[in-house]
Amino acid sequence: MNVESFFPENIKTPLKNDPPGEWMPTLPDKCIRLSSGFPAPTLVPVEQLKAAVISLLEEEQDLPLHYVGSPKVAKLKEQIQEMLLEYNIRVSGDELLITSGACQAIDLVARILIDDSTIIVIEAPTYMEALEVFQNYTKHFISIPIDEHGLQTKVLEEVLEERKKKGLTLPRLLYTIPTFQNPTGTTMSTERRKHVMKLAANYNFLILEDDAYRELFFDKPSIPLKAMEREGRVLYVGSLSKVVTTGMRIGWVAATPEFITALAWFKKDLGHPFAQATMASFLENTDMETRLNFLRDTYKAKCEVLISALERYLPKSVSWYIPEGGYFVWLNIAGVDTSQLLTEALSEGVSYVPGEYFFLNRQDGKEFLRLSFSYANQQDIVEGIQKLGNVIK
Ligand SMILES: Cc1ncc(COP(=O)(O)O)c(C=O)c1O
């Protein structure tokens, strides 16, 4: 049987791309994981989640185990609304959709806004999973470079102006991670945030703001794009993956009711009432401010250790941006193909993600790599960077 012949064109085309998750290195035993962009096992609140499950089932019996029924599902929505208020994002119930992590939120936004003729603006580099999602829907991208102040909005303006002059189609959507970006760790300056909002209004595009790391600031939070607008151009995506746990898959989209209706229309997985109710129960019984402050201090300390190890063990030809929060440090190693170097690094016992996977045009990322300080402990971070230094030299 010719299986491929059954696939329609909109499925056949993306299946020709590289397979999802190709970027993830296969790690040897005892490898120091500077590639893993998720929390160390010690930072997962296992005991508190165990207590949340027990108290939920004692209180509600079978209710959270049905399609619908647990009042805690609605409670979680209120809790997320309250969290958003802290960032000056005021949304009503019909402006918020809980999703299966930020990943599903991105996929749903792509589903309702993108067809194979849509042009999307992405940051270069950008979060590779989002890139994979968008490539499932369109081939038309405009990549705008990032520097230490985030998206280069002047370059974006020039590109848009040029397209307008030439009568070319303008993009419908910009995907941006303005705060503690994955993979560069950079944060968009306030000036550029204002500029990008102005461009969105002038050139009539929407913004998909991915704010997965916003809580993990070292010293001060930044203002989300969503909090800077009234018009409804920003579809705001968030997640509890980085501050509670990745496996419960709790994320959201905050947007105007018309967008939320469309997103909910196509969200056919019926949600995860048990995970959502457990999360609500966890949040009810957790002092999140204390937890967040603990995580901020922990990641800040790990990042400082990583940066001083880079200064100590890496040759002068290597450069990086200093992050103000999040999980990542982005390295530029002039003259080195970081994908080739990975084999050596893995055999030395340290992992990272080669830069090429974060670019649409892979070649642009050859001399970069992403390090994460979220998973490894401080001692391992130092040892890992020492190993990386040996391999680069
Ligand atoms: C920028 C960004 N957005 C979204 C996600 C995915 O978050 P979730 O686990 O909520 O799907 C990640 C995870 O690495 C990320 O780095």
TrEMBL record:
Keywords: Aminotransferase, Pyridoxal phosphate, Transferase. This is Aminotransferase. Homodimer. It comes from Salipaludibacillus neizhouensis. InterPro entries: Aminotransferase_I/II_large, Class-I_PLP-dep_aminotransf, PyrdxlP-dep_Trfase, PyrdxlP-dep_Trfase_major, PyrdxlP-dep_Trfase_small. Residues 30-386 form the Aminotransferase class I/classII large domain. GO terms for biological process: alpha-amino acid metabolic process. Its cofactor is pyridoxal 5'-phosphate. Belongs to the class-I pyridoxal-phosphate-dependent aminotransferase family. GO terms for molecular function: pyridoxal phosphate binding; transaminase activity. It holds the Pfam family Aminotran_1_2.
